[in-house]
Write a structure and sequence with these properties.
This protein is mainly α. It is built from 21 helices and no strands. α16 runs antiparallel to α19.
Amino acid sequence: MRSRAGAGLLVVMLGLAVTVTLGLVEKSPCATGNWGDLRQYRLLCYSDIVPLYGTESLQGSRLPYIDECMPGVNGVCDEYPVLTMYAMRIAAWPVSTTAGFFYANVILLVAAAIATAYALWRLAGRRALYFALAPTLLIYGFVNWDLIAVAFAATATSAFVKRRNTLAGVLLGLGAAAKFFPALLVVPFVAERLRKKDRAGAIDVLWWSVVAWLAVDLPFIILAPHPWSGFFRFNAHRVTDFDSLWFIVCNHLHRGPCGNTNLVNKVSLLAFVAAAGLVWVFKVRRHPDTPRWQLGFPILVAFLLANKVYSPQYSLWLIPWFALALPDLRWFLAFEAADVAVFVTRFAWFGSFSGPHNGWTNGVTYTYFEVALLARAAVLIGCVFAFLLRAPPRRAEERMPVEPQAEAMAA
């Protein structure tokens, strides 16, 4: 049993190594920041990491939030949550070039990918290959810092299934300090403990998630409240993103992003809550024994589709859930195909209007990008329906504590 489990882990890690290596090769042409020839679009190697080395004033020893920062191209500094900003700060300290900063962050993000893959293997055996071999990981893993929050969410889920409530809460809180989305998982995690009549466990998850988040954020709330809150102000006033369904609708109405951002914020929140609530009620009524934590999958899908921003790397949030909640290869491949189509058409479209002589991208119009976005949204809606209609995958709770790795490989 142990040898089979070890072989399964080796397969997952080898698959992950291939994916991240190819991802690094794909992004490397953009690492130096010499983008005068618009290679970031023509070669599809764009990464936020590269320009943010300069726009976030990370070349020196500036401490995010604490020390003054000159606003970048979008008019804000320190635009990310605390743990993400300080991951950037740590990566910048030992380097002095844009390329050095990029590769230092690659090391951090590969570590996050390894932690995610290991946590998924512990829960689902070889189904962790859904994450390890995902084209989404290849193309988006080094675009931004989302893998850090993904790792916290995956390890929190592993801890939760093993009934380590305090650790699960701490990891969710740390994940929320890196990116908002792990905070959404607190609700289904707490609900699962309440379903099992474990009120103390529910309180532990909720309490320690808040404590961990405050432990990271509270010092900056006290010492630098205005810079710290820049992330929230920026996102509150941010207009509809090209990748959102909101932009598609408003672009057809008046050829541009939605004008009333405050209204969009309210309606998108209402749509998210309503969609998540409907999915929750339907699933629980159809399959009452569904582990509530698995409802994290449709909740994240509802959030992404209803939100005014769906940055391309946000798809990384969903990939672990194909191993945990929807291990259906057909839907996984459909999502991956649509996600890759969004990636290609998005950056090719950017290239087409950034310069008249940008190679193959010149013929790519917004229509191509829009079709890819609508296809991805349709696939995600289909994934939610598939999740609702199928019985829950074999529950990780039922396999504890007997060699979950080996037993899961047969699933």
